Structure formats: C-alpha cells, structure tokens
Amino acid sequence: MRRAVVNSATLVYMPPEHEPVLAPELIDQLAPEPGQTAVDCTFGAGGHARQVGEAIGSSGTLVCIDRDPAAEARFERLAAEVPCQTRFIGEDYAAGLRMLSGEGIRPDMVYMDLGMSSMQVDARERGFSYSYDAPLDMRMDTRQEFSAADLLNEWPESRIAQALRRYGEERYASGIAREIVRRRPLQSTAELVAAVKAGMPASARFGGGHPAKRTFQAIRIAVNGELDSLEAALPAAWAMLPTGGRFAAISFHSLEDRPVKQFLAARARGCVCPPELPVCACGREPEAELLTRRAIAPGAQEMAVNPRSKSAHLRAAVKIAGATEARA
Ligand SMILES: C[S@@+](CC[C@H](N)C(=O)[O-])C[C@H]1O[C@@H](n2cnc3c(N)ncnc32)[C@H](O)[C@@H]1O
C-alpha cells in the first residue's frame, strides 16, 4: 500500500511502517469474498488485514490477532478505515485461535505472516537487531517476563548451545554458548555480538552475512517460543475451518516453513496403508487440497523494493472434507 503525503512543496512518498510481503499472492490464495469472516493471526501493521478487510466488505468480519501490545493502536487506526466488522485479540495466536474456536467461530480463512515486523526490528530499544546497541530484550509480547537477558544469563551453557543449534542452525553453537557463559552477566546486544564473534573462528566472521544473525534469530525464537506457538496454532487453525475454508502462511526461514509444509502435506494425504496391503484398511481421506504445490516466493521486483521479502515462502490449502478434528 503506497501512501503519499503533502508537504509544503511537493507530494512525497512515505513508505509504510511495514511493507506487507507477498500481498497480492496471499489475497489470490485466500480469495476473500464479500460477507466472509477472516482471521489474521499476525496483524503487525495490518498491511494484509487491510486488503482482506476491504475485500470482505461491510458485511464481512475481520478478526486480528497480535501478541505485541503495540499492535493494538495500529489496529484501532485500521478498524476506523476498513468497511468490515473488526475485532482485536492481543494474545499469542495459538491462544487466540483456541478462544475463537471456543466461541464457535468458523472463519472462511485463517492466515499468518510469521516472524517479526519491521516496527519491531526498527525499535532499537527492543533489542531484536544486532545492528543497534540495546538492552537484551527481544520479547514480542512486552507483558511477558522472560527476556533475552534472562535466557542468556540464566540458562545452562548446554541449553543455550542447543537453542543456537536448533533455532539458528548455528555451526559454532558450542563455542558461542561457552563465550556467553564466560562473559556473564551480559546486558546489551553489543555484548552479545562481541560474545558471538569471540565464540567462532576468525575466518567464519567474514562472508555469509552478519556473524550474529543466526544467534539473534535463535535467541528470539527461544524467548518467544515461536515454534511451539506455530505447532500449536496449525491444528487449531485447521480445525476451525469449514469445508471450503482456506489457510495460508508466509514464513521466512526453513524452521517456520517446514512445519507448515509438513502439516499441510499430512492433511492432503489420503490412504497411508503400507503398499503391500491389497486394499486400504486405514480409510483415510485427504482433507486438504494444496493450493501451492511449491511454495510461492516473491518476484525480483518485490525483492528489490522490499529486501526483507527475500526469504519469504507462501503456502496455502483449502479444506475439502468436513473433518473438524485435527490429526496428529
Ligand atoms: C511479519 S509481522 C506481520 C505483518 C503483517 N502481516 C502486516 O502486513 O503488517 C508479524 C507479526 O506477528 C506477530 N506475532 C508473531 N508471532 C506471534 C504469535 N505467536 N502470536 C501472535 N502474534 C505473533 C508479531 O508481533 C508481529 O507483529
């Protein structure tokens, strides 16, 4: 969504706070229609929500979830501008979806745009970025007590190393964890960057992006329990959808994309009997049709305008059977 503001002399392009990624592609997959109900699990700055809200129109309902309390004020602004009914849930999306489900809500579409918003990265004091010196925070939900400082200063070395390996796919996890523990107490992101650099061989500090990129990703995922939320939200979202309902997710790294891909593939699978069985004994029917056999990635133009979109992957599916029970 481009915005123009007038200053005294000329029209000036003001980039939005957060450029929504793969927005036309997402709308294409969700195919929102007037009167439908949509759940946006990751409201952010509402770039996607705005487009969905406009498409479902005055008879539609848009529920927006975000666990960052700062998102609520942005939601209020959007709610005044879109034609549809709106509602905000300031919770983790897994909890928000369970709440909606408990109310008997059966949305026509549920979608999520995972990870952090540009506003979160750019708010220096929140400590998400290795580019600014800031307190070790990294909480998406600022009401949460547990922060990056708690993790880095209290977790045992082996647990930090495991988190760096699991959530950052960091090769030098053991060395970095050792340095973190040796330098305790760590108080700032600059101190964390210094520990990361000291914990890896000098040759590994050059080329391949910022040396602390994987560590920051890992700590952020661990502080916010991001993958646990995703694992809990996928079956909750799917169970709410009626037949014909659509689910879509935009992920930014393989740790997010893999569970989405596996979850949707499992729902799209029919019979799982061993091939040696002459007839099907499992009776399992597919309950999803994949709308994206391969994930949709941004085109060169989007990547040039919005470099943050580079690693984005969009996957979507439509529910084709009436089953409401999530399968393991
Ligand atoms: C990439 S941004 C979404 C941007 C949004 N689609 C837009 O167009 O502006 C991700 C947002 O999801 C929120 N978020 C991430 N994980 C969440 C979770 N488990 N529960 C609720 N909100 C979450 C973050 O706080 C952030 O605001």
Overview of the molecule:
The chain is an alpha/beta fold. It folds into 2 domains: 18-119 and 226-319, Vaccinia Virus protein VP39 (Rossmann fold, 3-Layer(aba) Sandwich); 125-224, Orthogonal Bundle (DNA polymerase, domain 1), CATH 1.10.150. 39% of the residues lie in helices and 13% in strands. It contains 13 helices and 9 strands. It has helices at residues 23-30, 47-56, 71-79, 93-102, 118-122, 148-154, 157-168, 173-182, 189-198, 213-224, 226-240, 254-268, 300-305, and strands at 3-6, 11-14, 37-40, 61-65, 85-89, 109-113, 246-251, 288-290, 313-319. The strands form 2 sheets. Strands 5-4-3-6-7-9-8 form a 7-stranded mixed sheet, with helices on both faces. The protein has a two-stranded antiparallel sheet with strand order 1-2. Strand 1 (3-6) and strand 2 (11-14) form a beta hairpin. It is globular, with a radius of gyration of 21 Å. It binds S-adenosylmethionine. S-adenosylmethionine is lined by residues 18, 20, 42, 44-48, 65-68, 71, 92-93, 113, 115-117, 140, 229.
Topology:
Elements lengths: L2 E4 L4 E4 L8 H8 L6 E4 L6 H10 L4 E5 L5 H9 L5 E5 L3 H10 L6 E5 L4 H5 L25 H7 L2 H12 L4 H10 L6 H10 L14 H12 L1 H15 L5 E6 L2 H15 L19 E3 L9 H6 L7 E7 L9
Parallel strand pairs: 3-4, 3-6, 4-5, 6-7
Antiparallel strand pairs: 1-2, 7-9, 8-9
